[in-house]
Amino acid sequence: MNKFKLAILPMMVLMVNTSVNAEGLIEDSKLDLMNRNFYFYRDFREGAFNTAGANTQVPVSEKEGYRSEWAHGIVAQFQSGFTDTPIQLGFNFHAMGALKLYSDEFKTGTNILEFDGVTGDTKETNGEFGGALKFKYKDTTLTYGDQFPNTPVIAVSTVRLLPSTVTGISVQDKSFDNLTINAAHFYRMNPVDTTENLNYFTTDYATTGINANSISYLGGSYKHNDVTYTAYASELEDVWNQYFIGANITYKLPKEGHAIRLATANYYNTDTGDKKYGDIDALALSALVGYQYQNHTLSLGYQQIIGDDPFDWVGFKTMGANTSILNAAQFATFSESKEKSVQAKYDVDFTPYGVQGLSLMARYLYGWDIDKIKSNPIYLIGAEKDNAGKVDYTHWERDITLGYKVPTGFAKGLDIKLRQATHRATKGYRYNDIDELRVILEYPLSF
Q1: 3-class secondary structure for 262-292?
Q2: Which residues pair with 422 in a beta bridge?
């Protein structure tokens, strides 16, 4: 966390309290506290092994064939209100920490705990804190400091124990009805599994190959009746320009309880600036259409990558950011160069059957026609370097999520999720064959 920002926050609050009407700072403030308990297990199939931690220091015969860790995390986020002044002032503050419950130096590498890459030793605890100043004029808010953006071109990763963060300046405008405009420039980030402040961004695909000094974007969303349109343009400095167009549509049919839901998410990446990592060219098209019948929804999706390179997006050292492409699954993203993929998905809410809060999601995805013969070398991993254009890679993934959210009582709001994934692929492909289980308990509190 930048020491200058830590110092300026309390000074700013003191100044506000002593020189202007600061009642709104407290009256409209909000504190959210998330307790998150996370168990992660990944089994590498067909004789494969964990490539992290102490496993790197022993013969193949002694390497563990799976990863397994358990930890508890707490994320506290405080958002103040604003002062009653022409330009309103406020601040945000966050603190988060992780507590190791189980880990082994040969089974580490799950990205839920900070660990030594050579010995595999994990920290018993770690934590960080940060904050941001915010300035509001009418319906426009400017924020400077540590933030948690959630846009199609950069959305902090939330798929492990603690979220990643970014540092920079952002502006949000809501002056027009149903229209939200966002712009930002971020120049620093924190990964999900360390307390490092890094002055660069990686990408999801080439986590060790691409370092960019900053990311900037402009875009927004517009809602009209039951349709939300979204468009963004961003620049990963001297690496690529990324453009996004998407929409979400809900069409209620005349018969009660029936509806059609349509989502589409489309990206285009092209190299820019100094082209530090060479030519980049990828168009990602994806769509998902669902039919809802009361508490059941059946969805079918299609995704295709057009261009010589895989579709890639912003990352945080060891993990990619959350992405909006619709065939990104629990393990694989189905975003290789020229890859085509399909998805079948089923969701059900068990409330009508007397079990309020219980839900189930099951999906199957299949990808084919992967062709990386003309891909940028940074996107060739392992055996793909020798097999580009020679092997017809295919793969599939099956995901099942069983969730239960406690509806009443002292534990109201407790959210329990069991997530299982199975992935199988042609040998030598980027993603291994794995069986994976994640058990996640979340208990949110608001004050």
Answers
A1: EEEEEEEEEECCCCCCCCCEEEEEEEEEEEE
A2: 398, 435
Contacts of 228 (CB under 8 A, 6+ apart): 221, 222, 247, 248, 249
DSSP string, 307-324: SSS----EEETTEEPP--
Neighbours of 125 (CB within 10 A): 11
Outline where DSSP puts E strands in 104-176.
Answer: 125-137, 140-147, 165-173
Q: How far apart (Å, rounded) are the C-alpha atoms in residues 25 and 6?
A: 18
The Cα 92–Cα 80 span in angstroms is: 6
pLDDT tens for 116-171 read: 888 999 999 999 999 999 999 999 999 999 999 999 999 999 999 999 999 999 99
Q: Which two tokens stand for residue 116?
A: 């030594």
Please name the residues in contact with 249: beta carbons below 8 A apart, sequence gap of 6 or more. Answer: 226, 227, 228, 260, 261, 262, 263
Could you tell me the two tokens for 44? 């590498």
Residue among 428, 439, 330, 438 nearest 48 (CA): 428
Predicted confidence (pLDDT) per residue in 369-390, tens digit: 998 888 888 888 766 766 766 6
Check: CB of residue 77 under 8 Å from CB of residue 158.
Answer: no
Helix (H) or strand (E) holding 40: strand 30-44
pTM (predicted TM-score): 0.92
How far is residue 108's CA from residue 40's CA, in Å, rounded to a whole number? 10
CA distances from 119 to 57, 122, 438 (A): 8, 9, 25
293: which strand partners? 258, 296
Question: What does the chain come to in residues?
Answer: 447
CA atoms of 164 and 162, how far apart (whole Å) = 7
Give the DSSP letter string of 173-193.
E--STTEEEEEEEEEEEE-SS
DSSP classification of residue 321? P
Is the Cβ–Cβ distance between 294 and 231 less than 8 Å? no
Each residue's pLDDT tens digit, 140-152: 999 999 999 999 9
User: Quick count: other Cβ atoms within 10 Å of Cβ 147?
Assistant: 22
d(CA 49, CA 433): 11
